[in-house]
Amino acid sequence: MPKLVYICHPIKGDVEKNIKDILRTCKKIHTSRIIPYAPYLVACQYLKDHITRERQLGIQAGIEAFPRKAMDEVWLAGDKISQGMKEEIKLALKYQIPIKCYNKKLQKELKKILKKR
User: Fold this and answer.
1) CB 3.0 to 4.6 Å from 66: which of 16, 47, 75, 91, for a disulfide?
2) Which residues 6+ apart lie within 8 Å of 84 measured at CB?
3) pLDDT of residue 117
């Protein structure tokens, strides 16, 4: 059975660029053994990130997957760990979902976050 991997990546800021980066990551890792999972990407197609209420709905689209354990692992991607990603890391830890860094640059940031716990 393929592994379902939640792609944890910044959205806020340059939303268009970030969506392209997420899609590029998904395409790169998608194989018969790994299926990328990014439910918030769908929400980004019809919700406006700069409108607070709509941004919260988009965030909820991703967060709902954690208590349901809808993924096998969480992979951190992007150029930094955003505030939203920190919340997803907390949820992964709470629900005992393994976390991996797709980008080695994020490993140091993740270690700092884990030390603070």
Assistant:
1) 91
2) 10, 11, 12, 59
3) 73
| Distance separating the N- and C-terminal Cα atoms of the chain | 33
Distance between CA 49 and CA 54 in Å, rounded? 6
- Do 5 and 37 form a contact (C-beta atoms < 8 A)? yes
Burial class (CB in 10 A: 0-12, 13-18, 19+), 108: exposed
Amino acid at 98: P
The pTM (predicted TM-score) of the whole model is 0.92
Helix (H) or strand (E) holding 75: strand 73-76
- DSSP letter assigned to residue 64: T
Assess contact for 11 and 84: CB atoms under 8 A.
Answer: yes
Mean pLDDT, rounded, for 52-63: 88
The pLDDT tens digits of the residues spanning 24-46 come to 999 999 999 999 999 988 888 89
